[in-house]
Amino acid sequence: MIRDIFKFKKANAQKLKEYGFSATDGGYSLRTSVLNGLFEMRVSVKDGEVGTMLTDCESGEEYRLHLIEGSNGEFVGKVKAEYEAVLSDIRDKCFDEEIFKNAQSKQVIQYIENRYGDRLEFLWESSPSTAVWRRTDNRKWYGAIFVLQRSKLGLSGGGETEIIDLRADPTAIESLVDNVSYFRGYHMNKKSWITIMLDGSIPTQTVFDRIDESYLLALKK
């Protein structure tokens, strides 16, 4: 539940302080009441992770029914609704957007903005972790960036990864694809697009060079 509410979000320390959070043990914490004082809710933010604890003010015991999937009942529903409302308000007022978290992804986004003046375009509401770059002269795509499950690339280990799709010369694609750091274009024409892992396995300057090549190829096609 918490992971879903704060997905693609990054805490803003100044906003947390302005909201009422106190600095504690390398992070921030907040205490607030839920259901007119029936519960005390503690929210902690540390190392990018959000934690919560709901305590019954009368018994002093931790309350957890609102966290159990499938738990029913009018009262539990009220607790869950207010609990989520508190977290959503904190998210909206204290967190900034951060869809792409890898250091290399951030370097790529900044490079394209500095060199070409192009910013990410998020075209699909149903896919908030997918964005593209387009040339301003002909509106053709020359890059796309994704957050996706590693399994979609045939990789083991589970979890998510960040990738960039770029146009490339078909001959170069044949020689580069290793299904480790380079793949045939994800959701693109596999003959003319290549996918690159943005996990640092390919030198950042090499990624920049391939972006420049893709930009030129988008002019020709």
Description:
By secondary structure, the protein is of the alpha+beta class. It has six helices and eleven strands. It has helices at 2-5, 13-19, 74-94, 103-116, 170-176, 204-220; strands spanning 9-11, 22-24, 27-34, 39-46, 49-56, 95-97, 130-134, 141-149, 160-167, 182-184, 193-197. Helix 4 packs across helix 6. The N and C termini lie far apart (45 Å). The model has no long low-confidence stretch (mean pLDDT 93).
Main attributes of the structure:
about 220 residues; alpha+beta; five-stranded antiparallel beta sheet; four-stranded antiparallel beta sheet
What portion of residues belong to β-strands?
Answer: 25-35%
Question: How many strand elements?
Answer: 11
Helix content: 25-40%
Report on the biggest sheet: 5 strands, antiparallel
**Ranges with pLDDT <50 over ≥5 residues?**
none
The secondary-structure class comes to alpha+beta
Straight-line N-to-C gap: 45 Å
The helix/strand order is HEHEEEEHEHEEEHEEH
| Separate helix tally | 6
Radius of gyration: 22 Å
Strand order of the largest sheet: 7-8-9-11-10
Q: Indicate the overall shape.
A: elongated
How would you state the average pLDDT, rounded? Answer: 93
List the helices and strands and how they pair.
Layout: H1 2-5, E1 9-11, H2 13-19, E2 22-24, E3 27-34, E4 39-46, E5 49-56, H3 74-94, E6 95-97, H4 103-116, E7 130-134, E8 141-149, E9 160-167, H5 170-176, E10 182-184, E11 193-197, H6 204-220
Antiparallel strand pairs: 1-6, 2-3, 3-4, 4-5, 7-8, 8-9, 9-11, 10-11
Helix pairs in contact: 4-6
